[in-house]
Amino acid sequence: MNVKSTHITTVEHAVPVEERWRKNGHRGGVLWFTGLSGAGKTTLAFGLERRLFGKSYQVYVLDGDNVRHGLSSDLGFAPEDRAENIRRIGEVAALFADAGFIVLTAFISPYRQDRAVARRAGRGRFHEVFLRADLETCERRDPKGLYKKARAGLIPDFTGVSAPYEPPEDPELVVDTVALTVRESLDVLEEYVERVFTL
Ligand code: ADX
Predict the structure, then answer these.
(1) At residue 152, does pLDDT exceed 80?
(2) Ligand 1 centroid to residue 191 C-alpha, Å
(3) Across all residues in the chain, what is the average pLDDT?
(4) How many Å separate Cα 158 from the centre of its chain?
């Protein structure tokens, strides 16, 4: 990663991350959801946040549509814009993880290279979760009516229609959201969180 500034240093935090973990009762880290639009990223991220919050976890969701209204409001969907979007989210998620949080990110993040950048930012606390659902199913779900618009030629660079989705090659977790109900998917995710973020 290129750093434009010169004459900058890095300072140590006064509170070591392990102390934050002890206070929270769990480790921090990033659960990075990736998958097609309609695969279930938003539903499962917010559903998992609700469940974990109820169990006193420090947890927060970063969601594509929300972040694109603020942090990434200057970006569109061309490959270089998506790369910058994912780079920013990767850095923000890593900061949240450093602050002791379990961060759930819900972005299509269709390019392997961009996800690799986010993984590096997460420095060993990055867990890639592939929400697997075939295009046909996602298109049938079409929760926002966007596939219909994309097929009508109204949305350029639409993932799965006129832009690619590169599935993860070696994700930490795969959730098949076609075979599983929302509740079953949340059970799998909750179990994973309890396994990897326990002190
Ligand atoms: S990403 O590719 O950069 O990771 P991100 O998750 O932030 O995408 O945004 C995806 C959301 O933006 C979709 O859920 C959809 O609501 C909306 N969207 C608008 N245009 C597009 C497009 N061309 N391709 C994909 N999603 C789009």
Answers:
(1) yes
(2) 28
(3) 97
(4) 19
